[in-house]
Amino acid sequence: MDNIEEDIRALQLDSSAEDSKMVVSNDNGVEPEELVVPDDVEEDLRDESHTASHTEEDTDPQTEHSEPKAVVEVKEQSSAAEPIEDEVEKNKKRHLNVVFIGHVDAGKSTIGGQILYLSGQVDERTIQKYEKEAKDKCRESWYMAYIMDTNAEERVKGITVEVGRAHFETETTRFTILDAPGHKSYVPNMISGASQADIGVLVISARKGEFETGYERGGQTREHVQLAKTLGVSKLLVVVNKMDDPTVNWSKERYDEIESKMVPFLKSSGYNVKKDIQFLPISGLHGTNMQTRMDKKVCPWWNGQCLFEALDALEVPPRDPNGPFRMPIIDKFKDMGTVVMGKVESGSVREGSNLVIMPNKVQVKVLAIYCDEDKVRTAGPGENLRVRLSGIEEEDILSGFVLSSNEKPISAVNEFVAQLHILELLDNAIFTAGYKAVLHIHSVVEECEIIELMQQIDPKTRKPMKKKVLFVKNGAVVICRIQVSNMICIEKFSDFQQLGRFTLRTEGKTVAIGKVTDLRA
Ligand code: GTP
Ligand code: MG
């Protein structure tokens, strides 16, 4: 156990020597969870935009206040003579946030670890140490996952709990990897990871029986796809993993079977399979078909890309660097001022900028900006940042607040109108005025109550139904008024999709997804 801290430190030191950088850090939040998703989703949510959401419903007190390791890194860097990354150089490469999602044990952390290893960020010595540690814990094959799974609980149990974060670069792109947990207890953490991502890698285990459990009703392959789409993950690489497993042995039939079962489900979840989805076979454990295309001797039938190529070729919808600045705050801490963390959803920020924190309308000034581990002068949309501010105390900020442009601040409301798609209610309950749930919209997590069902939408014609609606059941699409007890900052979906999509959860289950159609202060 003592070795873990040392290993983490060793890793971070290794990475600082490289020009490609790595940080492994964690988000948090814990909650029991189970969800079955229906096979049809509201049409309006079927588009390519991306959005933000972050949740930590009923977070585990043990993890809630654990400080992400990335934060520690910044603190270490905050000495007087900080090098300022050359802006032009930094901005030359595009930046993509990629979340790894999929059922528990599909191999997400193993693939993340392998990516860092292949991109030269983990040395042999560290790998050997992990091999030994994994063996000592009777988890031999888990050593690659240990690169991403850095805390003791994760290593002992062999599951990811908190979202691991790491960075790597290819010729054209800087990637931030977000390694989400697959276990159903940690879905809120997965939501948090997905809300920060532009694209997703859906990892599916091809091992006999494992694909099946992930795919069946209640499996997280389904739930994660559905949530990722709602949270704005616009494209998915579907990685069919464990192709080396003896039960698979690079079988084309098995690969085709998985693809043919996944395609209709991905379609029903709102993805355009031709444009937004790409399948490829890999072995995360052995690193096969990841950095380089695999040998025909391993897999004679595969002529397509390897994972790095596919990641490099992914295009995401253009973001507007000139839009009004919006950065939902995920976390905050004190460090020579107040530092807030979050992903820029729109606009750009510059050292010295005057901004406003909403909804409490506090004027702030930007003292410093950190992108990954680097200090930068400016940053644009899509970047995950830490921003040091003056003018506000750390205690006066809550996650879910939005760092916002002064000229066009985001609106704050405690009531709004939304179009909801009911997925599955607990015990087939009915959904009616008075229904209470937890609202997750970008980084906001807030208790909410349905005040009024206004209109039901006919799922077939997509037109409002005439008769008055008093209650609805699973699968219904309904327009309703929702109230929250505290002011929250959101946007109309039609104005700003990233900040206008949400999920409703009850007792750890995602019961509905929706979009904001009208704001009422
Ligand atoms: P959670 O974080 O708990 O959701 O799991 P995960 O998806 O991160 O899976 P993880 O990487 O921890 O791997 C789970 C198990 O699958 C480990 O024993 C891995 O060694 C094994 N595994 C992962 N990838 C491969 C692979 O390509 N081939 C084989 N044979 N085993 C693999
Ligand atoms: Mg994992």
Pick out the low-confidence regions: 1-90
Spatial extent as radius of gyration: 22 Å
Strand order of the largest sheet: 1-3-4-2-5-6-7
Straight-line N-to-C gap: 52 Å
Bound molecules: guanosine-5'-triphosphate, magnesium ion
Q: What share of the residues does DSSP label as strand, in percent?
A: 25-35%
Tell me the helix content: 10-25%
The count of helical stretches stands at 13
Profile the largest sheet: 7 strands, mixed
Structural class given helices, strands, pairing? alpha+beta
| Global outline | globular
**Number of DSSP E strands:** 24
Question: Tags for this entry?
Answer:
521 residues; alpha+beta; 7-stranded mixed sheet; 6-stranded antiparallel barrel; 13 helices; 24 strands; 23% helix; globular; disordered N terminus; binds guanosine-5'-triphosphate; binds magnesium ion
Description:
The structure is a single chain. The protein is α+β, with helices and mostly antiparallel strands and about 525 residues long. About 25% of the residues lie in helices and about 30% in strands. The protein has 13 helices and 24 strands. It has helices at about 1-15, 60-65, 70-75, 85-90, 110-120, 125-135, 150-155, 185-195, 210-215, 220-230, 250-270, 275, 305-315, and strands spanning about 25, 95-100, 165-170, 175-180, 200-205, 235-240, 275-280, 325-335, 340-345, 350, 355-360, 360-370, 375, 380, 385-390, 400-405, 410-420, 430, 435-440, 445-455, 470, 475-490, 500-505, 510-520. The strands form five sheets. It has a seven-stranded mixed β-sheet with strand order 1-3-4-2-5-6-7, sandwiched between helices. Strands 8-9-15-12-11-16 form a six-stranded antiparallel beta barrel. A hairpin with a 2-residue loop joins strand 12 and strand 13 (about 375). It is globular. The termini are far apart. About 50% of the residues are buried. The structure holds guanosine-5'-triphosphate (GTP) and magnesium ion. Guanosine-5'-triphosphate binds near residues 142, 241 and 242. Magnesium ion binds near residues 108, 160 and 179.
